[in-house]
Amino acid sequence: MKFENMNIEESILGSLNDIGFEQPTKIQSETGSGKTAAFGIPLVEKVVKGNRIQALVLAPTRELALQIATDLKNYSRFKGLYIQTVYGGVSMGPQIYGLRQAEIVVGTPGRILDHMQRGNMDLSNLKIFVLDEADRMIDMGFIEDIAKIERNTPKNRQTLLFSATMSSSLMGVRERFTRNAKKITTKTKVEENILKQYYCDIDYKRKFSLLVHLIEQEKPNLAIIFCKTRRDTDLVARNLRDNNINATALHGGLSQHRRETVMENFHKGMTRFLVATDVAARGLDIKNVTHIFNYNIPRDAEGYTNRIGRTARAGESGKAISLLIKDDHNSFRRIITNFSYHIKKMEVSDFRILPFNRYQSNRSRNFKTRRFSRRRFR
Question: Would the pTM count as exceeding 0.85?
Answer without folding.
Answer: no
